[in-house]
Amino acid sequence: MSPALTLDYGTTVGGRWSTRLFNAGATSATQVIEPVEEPWRSAVEARFKKLSGYTEGWDGYQSPPPHPSVIAYARSVLHSVMQFETPPPSIVPMPDGGLQLEWHRKGYDVELAIYSTDDVELSIEFSDDREPVEEKPVKLSFFELSEVLEQLA
């Protein structure tokens, strides 16, 4: 028995990802389901674009601009941990070419300091009696960050 509908994922339509819905045996899509962009994404991308334009001395003290690899890494982290309703972070350049991503909401203070792609620290102050996480090195997994961001949505 053949399925009544099939889906074709990952098709680009005008430069955007879409999902096409086909009737079984059809050669053309019966409906194109346009993706819905997460509310946080446009604010984050606008901030990354602005930070990419920073030049040396952006802070008045000859500090280097955020390194392109740090911006790309921060973007990748956000795409992996953010959910649809997660509020966008404040993205703050650091004087060493790094970035700090910050969320201050619902009694939580969450900070992810990205000094380089292999030097990242997570700090979390909770709204309850849990012990804070202070400058914890993060290597491969952002599970802890993802968990706390769920609470902010």
Structure, explained:
There is one protein chain. The protein has helices spanning 41-52, 68-81, 143-152, and strands at 5-13, 16-23, 31-33, 90-93, 99-105, 108-116, 119-125, 133-138. With 153 residues, the chain is of the alpha+beta class. The protein has a 5-stranded antiparallel sheet with strand order 4-5-6-7-8. A 3-stranded antiparallel sheet has the order 1-2-3, with no helix packed on it. Strand 4 (90-93) and strand 5 (99-105) form a beta hairpin. The protein is globular. It starts with a strand and ends with a helix. Mean pLDDT is 83; it is low at 5-16.
Strand-and-helix sequence, N→C? EEEHHEEEEEH
Instruction: Quote the distance from N terminus to C terminus.
Output: 42 Å
By DSSP (H or I, 4+ residues per run), the number of helices equals: 3
Structural shape: globular
Radius of gyration: 20 Å
> Quick one: biggest sheet?
5 strands, antiparallel
Mean pLDDT: 83
The strand order across the widest sheet is 4-5-6-7-8
The number of distinct β-strands equals 8
Which class do the helix and strand fractions yield? alpha+beta
The portion of residues forming beta strands comes to 25-35%
Binned, the helix content reads 10-25%
Low-confidence stretches: 5-16
Summary, kept brief:
The protein has 153 residues and is of the alpha+beta class. The protein has three helices and eight strands.
